[in-house]
Amino acid sequence: MPRGSFALIDSKALQHNYQVACQRSGQSSAMAVIKADGYGHGIAGVARALAAVAPKFAVACIEEAIAIRNAGVGQQPVALLEGVHSEQDLATCIENNFEPALHCDDQLQWLVRAPAAPRIWLKVNTGMNRLGFHTEELAQVMATLAQHQLASKVIGFVTHFACADDERSTMTQQQTERFEKATAPWPELQRSVANSAALFRPGQKLFGWSRPGIMLYGASPIVGTSAAELGLKSVMTLQAPLISTRLLQPGDSVGYGADWVASKPTRMGIVALGYGDGYPRHAGTGTPAAIHGQRIQLIGRVSMDMLAVDLSTAPAALNGDPVELWGATVPVDEVAGHAATIGYELLTSVTARVPRRWC
Ligand SMILES: *Cc1c(COP(=O)(O)O)cnc(C)c1O
Prior knowledge:
Blueprint (H helix, E strand, L loop, with lengths): L5 E4 L1 H15 L3 E2 L1 E2 L1 H5 L3 H8 L6 E3 L2 H9 L7 E3 L8 H8 L1 E5 L2 H9 L6 E6 L7 E2 L3 H10 L6 E5 L12 H13 L6 E3 L3 H4 L9 E2 L25 E13 L4 E2 L5 E2 L4 E6 L16 E4 L2 E6 L7 E4 L11 E5 L5 H7 L4 H7 L6 E3 L1
Parallel strand pairs: 1-20, 2-11, 3-4, 4-5, 5-6, 6-7, 7-8, 7-9, 9-10
Antiparallel strand pairs: 1-12, 12-15, 12-19, 13-14, 15-18, 16-17, 16-19, 17-18
Bound molecules: pyridoxal-5'-phosphate.
The site of pyridoxal-5'-phosphate (PLP) has 12 residues, from helix 9.
């Protein structure tokens, strides 16, 4: 019999969130970003759940795009946000309808040399300074492509924002203006700028394609605003059973380092999930969890296979009862806040030890 610790993945919530992304995208089409194993939810299941509605997927690399095809999802083009790793990969892109980004001179040389080229997105660096050609280089890159009869392979231009989640920053507007100006000489080509956070920025220009990722999974892209406030539903419920309960007396400590000490008689529970499952070890005493829809709190240090909770607020809790570590009652973003990180990291950190169960 399995341990009873698993991640329940709600395909209806995923589809709901995709619809929210479409609404926020207005006239633009939304390519569903499902990199990093579908943000930890399982790329095969995510691709299948969105196959009927998403016109395009986006992933980081070709391995992830192949995983979509191996899941039996064959219709949609898949954009490769980091482009290809080698010249050989270009043939795989053509065969599978993958659309790699072209972000550097090495990739341009591979493309020019290859016997055939896939359709590509030109990546423009407007200030993120991670990947992409400088705005001043675009004309030269386009000229090189045209020289090699590759102009028709260019689908359009993409750029990525550095500060879209910060409502007070003016950088997104600057990047948008830089992008619009730099790509204006090719009005017939497509354009894509917006990640999830940008889709919630008032007045944000969206062009033809948006690229929502985190919002699809029901986590908030915006610091200080909850996913529920944005109309998003939690997709992953991380759940594990209580496997032990005991009554602590004043002075009794809990777990490694004897970090937490009871100041009064306290009923506590041990949950069968720890950092070996991807739960953040930095989530300390006071981090929320839930049992029977009732909030409870972690106490002491998270161990590899277990963590401890205070059951004072859930006196009816019994061994075997399922505890929600995050999900509809406890937003993943809230747990992330207690671990000094972001929901993205927690969702993508759930290890292979935790079975994903789709419902
Ligand atoms: C990951 C990624 C996205 C999606 O970002 P979210 O913040 O998850 O919506 C969009 N575009 C690029 C280039 C990315 O790398």
